[in-house]
Write a structure and sequence with these properties.
349 residues; alpha/beta; 10 strands; Arc Repressor Mutant, subunit A; flat; four-stranded mixed β-sheet; 15 helices; single chain
């Protein structure tokens, strides 16, 4: 049976591209040879009409097919088990574990296990553990009465380790997580654009909010204790760069951002920023690129949790088949953003 989270056209596209991100999500059965393969198999591509997709090796074998000796598709399941086992060990320990120890538990060499883990999660084992600790810290900071207590609750040995580990990731000072932006100055402005009124707000680290049809009240709701300052000379230069990025899409990776999310959300946002102007991705493809092919709904949720429209280009994600899908600020703005980039869409959305 075909995996319901991906349609046949998208599966075939993954096979043609030999996309490793889809390994483990389905297998490709070739009816004329009686063999099933990984999507990334390096063997010559069969004719499309001879191909059938199966959810896994067991389903393919039930249909009378045998595994490819070149790509060893059933080893994908072993990889997945190894990764899940390592994740469980990391979560139980609450801190990074030695790569050699994790590899020994799975029967892989350290270098091979590092590649397997990174391919499936989008992060190395050490980076995954650090992201998990930072995520726990963010959660604890929203529950604990003191920052220091939250830091220890998250598994850090002390405040200095927490600040060193999260520098450049959390954006705002750690206390702002629990106090609605207390101690943080946010400059903001609402400006007219070809897409309508646009709200842009930034901390000293970068843009923390870009939205359409919102004003000061939206910032007050998110950062009730921050100091909100309209305009400002230094902010004006950043604002001009943001307006240019919206009106004339191009390379805006140089514009600094101040965002936060879970480890998976941030992985999705990184992948969104890698989509070139004029190209789109499906929700399934985005989930696979972020390291979890089965988390299609979670990828959609991460898209919706994006606080910085355009600069994190969630408008470049559409449904399989070319339909627009959804957009927080309305499909008309999404359609206009894509049109600026030369993307042709189906007309029945």
């Amino acid at each position: 049976m075909m995996d319901v989270m991906i349609d046949a056209d998208e599966a075939w596209s993954a096979v043609v591209a030999r996309d490793r991100a889809f390994d483990g999500r389905f297998v490709t059965g070739v009816l004329t040879t009686g063999i099933y393969c990984r999507p990334s198999c390096a063997a010559r591509h069969p004719a499309r009409g001879n191909v059938r997709f199966f959810a896994d090796g067991a389903a393919a074998r039930a249909a009378g097919l045998r595994p490819c000796k070149r790509c060893l598709p059933d080893d994908v399941s072993r990889d997945e088990r190894a990764v899940l086992s390592a994740i469980a060990a990391i979560k139980a320990a609450g801190q990074p574990l030695a790569l050699a120890a994790l590899a020994a538990e799975t029967g892989y060499s350290p270098s091979h296990f590092q590649r397997v883990f990174t391919r499936h999660t989008g992060l190395s084992p050490a980076a995954y553990a650090r992201a998990l600790m930072a995520e726990r810290a963010a959660q604890a900071l929203s529950e604990e009465g003191a920052v220091t207590g939250a830091i220890y609750a998250a598994g850090y040995s002390g405040p200095s380790r927490f600040y060193a580990a999260t520098e450049g990731r959390l954006g705002m000072a750690p206390s702002a997580w629990a106090n609605g932006g207390r101690g943080v100055t946010i400059h903001w402005a609402v400006v007219p654009t070809s897409l309508g009124q646009m709200l842009v707000a930034a901390t000293g680290k970068g843009v923390c909010r870009l939205s359409f049809g919102e004003g000061r009240e939206a910032l007050e709701a998110r950062f009730p204790h921050a100091e909100l300052v309209e305009g400002g000379a230094e902010f004006a230069a950043l604002l001009a760069q943001v307006i240019d990025a919206v009106e004339a899409p191009g390379d805006f990776a140089h514009i600094p951002l101040d965002v936060k999310g879970t480890a998976f959300q941030e992985a999705v946002w990184r992948e969104l920023r890698r989509i070139p102007p004029g190209e789109t991705r499906t929700y399934a493809g985005l989930a696979a690129a972020a390291g979890n092919p089965r988390a299609v709904r979670a990828a959609g949720s991460a898209n919706g949790a994006n606080n910085v429209a355009v600069l994190i280009p969630c408008h470049r994600v559409i449904r399989t088949g070319g339909h627009l899908g959804g957009y927080a600020y309305g499909l008309e703005i999404k359609r206009k953003l894509l049109a600026k980039e030369g993307v042709r869409l189906k007309l029945d959305d």
